[in-house]
Amino acid sequence: MALQAQHISSLSCQQELSEYDVILSAGEQISCGLLAITLQSIGINAKSWLAWQLPIVTDDFYSESKIKEVKIDCLQKSFSEGCSVAIVAGFQGVCNNRLTTFGRGGSDISVVALAVAFNVKTCEIFTDVDGIYTTDPKIVPKARRLKSISYDEMLEMSLSGAKILHNRSIQIAMRHNIKLQVLSTFKESEGTSVLPNNDVLEKHLVTGITYSTNEVLIAFTDLTLHILKDIVGANIRVDMIHNASLVTTKCDIDQAKKLLGNNIDYTINDSIAKISIIGIGITSNTAVMYNIFKVLERNKIEMLAISTSEIKISIIIKKEYAEVLVKDLHDSFASLS
């Protein structure tokens, strides 16, 4: 249904995006009702709730809305009347009596926001994996599950391609000092705790390596401040700037093309990957950067762009080398830990 809506319209206006959110939120609503019926059938007093019934109040930025307030009076009243399980539809809120959604993976945002509203200190999130790994175990079978990870590191991993937790759910947990416990829906496991940096007992030189193929490299003949100002002013995300090139996301590229028009000389490379190496204080340890360059040189992989922060080093390479580089970097840093 969502794809049909995209074929019908470019979904460029607020009214169309509002209707799109109605379509997107249908799955969660159906799942809530089915789960409530299933629990009731085995004697558990469960009740489903949709965002507008609480309500979870958001802004009107449809498909990427942000929460303003979570009201739980209805839930508390229901519990006092004997309800033992409340099933709240994730990923959605309400603004001016219209449904809104939080973006892909937004159910994480819903549950952490509810944890804040109920003033709990631990929020358990059940997913299709049994915790946070040092990298994608589908690519590197030797990837190690972390017992704990800091908010800052988890946030960087989420922003850099790891799809375990929505970055905004981590930000909310960090702001309100809520421990997140990432657990498996399908098997018993202690999972991974997401904690303040000082509470993480196991410290590693490199905590994780992520990769993303959602980036696009735009190379200009002359990248001026005027061009950058116009791009950022149009709410186009700029992830990295390297010489006369910048990196944005694939979902922003159509808007960037429209803005740049035919009067500016540029080329687009969408066959790239971003590899990010994450760990507290990695840029102050020269061994990390040395290892990255050594692995790139050994595999004869050209580095198209690089950016660094206190806890992350990101490099842009050709997409065809992404998995090879992730494997070699993981093996290389495992030997240093």
Automatic annotation (TrEMBL):
Keywords: Amino-acid biosynthesis, ATP-binding, Kinase, Lysine biosynthesis, Nucleotide-binding, Transferase. Its EC number is 2.7.2.4. GO terms for biological process: homoserine biosynthetic process; lysine biosynthetic process via diaminopimelate; threonine biosynthetic process. InterPro entries: AceGlu_kinase-like_sf, ACT-like_dom_sf, ACT_Aspartokinase, Asp/Glu/Uridylate_kinase, Asp_kinase. It catalyses: L-aspartate + ATP = 4-phospho-L-aspartate + ADP. Residues 275-333 form the Aspartokinase ACT domain. Pathway: Amino-acid biosynthesis; L-lysine biosynthesis via DAP pathway; (S)-tetrahydrodipicolinate from L-aspartate: step 1/4; Amino-acid biosynthesis; L-methionine biosynthesis via de novo pathway; L-homoserine from L-aspartate: step 1/3; Amino-acid biosynthesis; L-threonine biosynthesis; L-threonine from L-aspartate: step 1/5. The keyword Cell inner membrane does not apply. GO terms for molecular function: aspartate kinase activity; ATP binding. GO terms for cellular component: cytosol. It is an enzyme of class 2 (transferase). Residues 12-183 form the Aspartate/glutamate/uridylate kinase domain. It holds the Pfam family ACT_9. Belongs to the aspartokinase family. PANTHER family: ASPARTATE KINASE, ASPARTOKINASE. This is Aspartokinase. It comes from Cinara cedri.
